Amino acid sequence: MKIVVIGGTGLIGSKVVTELSGQGHEAIAASPRLGVNTITGEGLATALDGAAVVVDVTNSPSFDYAPALEFFETSARNIRAAEEVARVGHHVALSVVGTDRLTESGYFRAKIAQEALIEASPIPYSIVHATQFFEFVQSIADEATEGSTVRLAPVLFQPMASDDVAKVVARVAVGPPVNGIVESGGSEQVHLDAFIRRVLSERHDPRQVLTDPQARYYGATLSERTLVPDDGAILGKIRFDDWLSQSSAGEQAAA
After folding, report:
1. In sequence order, which residues have a C-beta less than 8 Å from that of residue 239 and are 6 or more positions away?
2. Cα separation of 94 and 46, whole Å?
3. What is the pLDDT of residues 156-207, one digit of tens each?
4. Spatial CA neighbour of 73 closest among 112, 34, 127, 130
5. DSSP 28-63
6. Cα separation of 131 and 160, whole Å?
């Protein structure tokens, strides 16, 4: 089965291509550096020709509302047009757990708009909501930093490894369209403030993490379960301790 992975050279996309190829599928990576641009439409028709499934794991380069909205809406419309011509049978998109609960954030309002366009498309679809990746927890700390202080709310947090995200996306891609949302998350629930405090300590980062129930997350206030999936989510198998050990070993080997 031919499956085109848009964003297929990025962190998640490259892993999805590897996972699908390992299962015997014709997994094709598509990205601007490979001549496929979802904003201009360049190369889309050729890339999608003969595809049974299209997987979209692209992300806006900006977290500000206006540019993120323009990116997601333009990309979604161009992909939909090419899918209709190619008669694609299943569109899979990667999004974020809690998107519908983070409406104060401009970025997540842009993601909501993207999902609405996917849902309104005639192409059968599945939207994978994943929790935050282990690889991106540093950016969460950076976003919440004021001087030498990191302010975070003591809410539940269930991050997962990018390898597990890719496995879930690949699993959904080879299955039938659900015309709805599939949630996924890590194997362990922790508290956001405590988790980031530990990560910074492990990396000898001198910033101080302060627990603040009113702290915003990318501009949005959080409740206890905003960032975690509901019961029935597909859970990853890689624990943070194991991922951290592997990452540290890899960094030492590359040094």
Report:
1. 187, 188
2. 22
3. 999 999 999 999 999 999 999 999 999 999 999 999 999 999 999 988 999 9
4. 112
5. EEE-GGGT--TTT-TTHHHHHTT-SEEEE----S--
6. 6
